[in-house]
## 1
Amino acid sequence: MNDEIDLAGVGVGPFNLSIAALADELPELRTRFFEKRERFAWHPGLMFRGSRMQTSFLKDLVTAVSPTSEHSFVNYLVRHGRFHAFLAAESSAVERVEFADYLGWVASRLSSLRFGVEVRDVAAVPGGFELRHDQGRTRARHVVLGTGRVPAVPECARPHLGPNCFHAIDILARPLHLQGARVAVVGGGQTGAEVVLELLRGAWGEVAELSWVSRRLNFEPLDESPFTNHLFTPGFVAAFHELDRPRRQSLLARHKLAGDGISLSTLRELHDRVYQLGALRSGPRVELLPGRELLSLSPRGSGFELHTRNNLDGEHESLPVDTVILCTGLREQLPPCIESLLPELERDEHGGLQVGANFELRRRRAGDGRLYIVNGGRTTHGIAESQLSLMAWRSAVILNDVLGRRRFAVEQERELVRWRARPREDARSR
Ligand SMILES: Cc1cc2nc3c(=O)[nH]c(=O)nc-3n(C[C@H](O)[C@H](O)[C@H](O)COP(=O)(O)OP(=O)(O)OC[C@H]3O[C@@H](n4cnc5c(N)ncnc54)[C@H](O)[C@@H]3O)c2cc1C
């Protein structure tokens, strides 16, 4: 495969899939999206049966900017003969397996996707970029990186990674036998909660002891209240992007629970189960340990001793366990294939990447083409960047930029909330 195109995508997760789905409406644009997996899959290692989306099904690949697109979730329902049955449940939080099936259905309908093709190198060349991949080379005017985020592993756990201490990202692909084991789950977000639930269901055998360790002072719910939901609007992202770095950093910390909290339904289910186990005095011994900072891990027999500091009373504690499951989240990381471009990338004084309002990675020397990134600008665009909420809008911003014209209407909706100060002249004229 040696060809020339307008836009190449590296990685086909939901975010680049959204760009590919919208680009399907643009016959004038030659696009190609490369994915190293053999077929589309959405976080398969965490696809627990019964887990629900944390975002509405309307926040699909296309609807926000192209509601008549055939790649919408509603069209998926209609085509599969489930529209009325779906509505009957009156639920906007669909099961993740169903949303993954929708994503896979769209992927199967797009001719621009290439599966089983890893991009090995992206180099700047006259006229844009050259991609070297498993099927040859492709020249593209512009490139969009959509390679996702990587597991965040606490420094102290890194030397101990192995069959008894691992990140949860691929837990369903692991041969796990935890019958009679003492297990610690580290991390108090949605994934931590879902893994604890699975353990209590006996998914990998009935554990003897289960300790759930979280740095947060309590097991806290996702904030889905109406005004918090306005943080996931184009208007807020624009306002956030214009702020200086210290202000953005402080907002990211304050907005934690808007993106990283636990769904209320999951919390209720967990509470019920733990309560029932205590009431019936059966099943594993469960210890809920919020407010604990993991300080270190030391090997002990075939397991570990976890050392924590209790942030409530300042005391130090230790916990002997056989298995440690790290539900410590994902972090941004540029893919190795753009190594040759790294020296060109603009950084702020803290080494942070500079991602423009058009999602372009700013480069010291502007080349002939633009290098975009999705899911790589949390510090520049805010918490919405790693969520599905604004994915269709962001895809449209990028495609408009590639086309050099306003093909999709991405201008800000009338915002209910005025985030920034009104310009002075504007204020006087009122
Ligand atoms: C379990 C889980 C549930 C989530 N649920 C929600 C939710 O309900 N609502 C919400 O808003 N957000 C949710 N998120 C957050 C977010 O929507 C997802 O993380 C989403 O998958 C991000 O999409 P992505 O395309 O950036 O990355 P990914 O889905 O990680 O996809 C990246 C793809 O790039 C491929 N790739 C990497 N390098 C290369 C290369 N060199 N060449 C070719 N291919 C490559 C990878 O194989 C992968 O398929 C969830 C996250 C997780 C982990």
## 2
Amino acid sequence: MDHILSEKIKNKEAKVGVVGLGYVGLPLAVELANSGFNVFGIDICEEKINMLKSKKSYVIDINSEVIEELIDKKLSVGSDFTIVSNLDIVIICVPTPLNEAKEPDLSYIVDSVKEIRRYLKKRTLIILESTTYPGTTEELIINSIEEEKSFKIGKDFFVCYSPERVDPGNKKFNITNTPKVIGGATKTCLELGILLYSSFVEKIVPVSCIKVAEMVKLFENTFRSINIALVNELTQTLERIGINIWEVIDAASTKPFGFFTFYPGPGIGGHCIPLDPIYLSWKAKKSNYYNRFIELASDINSNMPRYVVSQVTDILNNLGKCIRESNILLVGVAYKKDIDDLRESPAIEIFNLLEEKGASVSYYDTYISYFTNNGKVVYSIELTEEILNEFDLVIITTNHSNIDYEFILSNSEIVYDTRNVTSKYSSDKSILLGRHINSYTH
Ligand SMILES: NC(=O)c1ccc[n+]([C@@H]2O[C@H](COP(=O)([O-])OP(=O)(O)OC[C@H]3O[C@@H](n4cnc5c(N)ncnc54)[C@H](O)[C@@H]3O)[C@@H](O)[C@H]2O)c1
């Protein structure tokens, strides 16, 4: 154990930097500051830095009052990496998207590590939290610092990988009560990482090495992607057989062992489930292994918006209408309930597919008042009786908890519900995702 750094961590005297203040980095910086550390948040996005400096939060799980309490006291923010020379710990939370060829884009990690390396002093602990394929931390952080600075890992600097498992919008599980998996490059690295996280996380799960920690996160999200794909495929199968998938899932979920509940939907979104499995399959391909499960799940999930549109075509057809010139309202454009994140949202794809087919599309979202779509700013409509009456079809694409679905049902001509939020009202105006449309009598 490095006694100087470990004492600093124990006494909360270690200065901690968080690089990348987004959905992951900002809550982490807040948690560290709340637990007593002096935290320095670094982000290249001037707009975010300015918002934080004016005491405003842009992350849904963090209230502006929290920022107001911490800013310029326990939490300082800026875009300048020179601060790294003053830090004892640097935690990296930058994006790991896919590039146009649908391959891992590690440029954000590379860029931030380049800056960190430039100002890095000896005895600093670096932790990567961004999701990535096994081997990244070693290749892009450890090797690059050893080569460029002639520092020795475990002696001159310390490195861990600890995947962020935060679920934005989740009211029950947060950073402190979600077990934290961590792998270290050496025994000392791991011990330091455990010491840091155990000061604000209830349960730490150490693993034998960094690659295992990197793989844990990919496994978790691949597991979700594949299971969601299974129910999405079953939804389409059961539509043909004429069985209600939602009822099947509810009944199957009563089994107290050996079954995990996943629901179908209009597709998957966000920065994790659609992307993380691709990081794994890309890495596997490098070793000449082809993950058929991952590719198949990705294929099924990414085709769900098209399935939704095909059901919409059938619904309108039954009403003697077609998509062209229909007035369609999407309720919810965020990729999942109770958050304001539009990244990879299937609702946006449905929006565009319907517009391409000539529909006039509007949306309503209690979390997103406007967004830019194909260079055009689109605003959420007001939800009134008169406005609802104007639509030929309402599609529920995201199941935010603060929406009055009963009001929507009673004032709409017909509602296509891809999230099963309307069945409890037993209205004949509601059609669930996966229902066999031709058997529908309106
Ligand atoms: N969003 C989630 O639910 C979630 C959950 C678990 C893990 N993750 C992973 O965490 C990582 C971050 O995701 P996120 O959702 O917080 O992304 P985000 O886009 O919300 O935030 C990333 C931040 O990093 C900043 N940034 C980019 N390059 C930078 C650089 N060179 N230096 C400093 N700042 C830089 C961006 O400006 C942005 O503010 C990703 O790897 C993601 O897969 C995300």
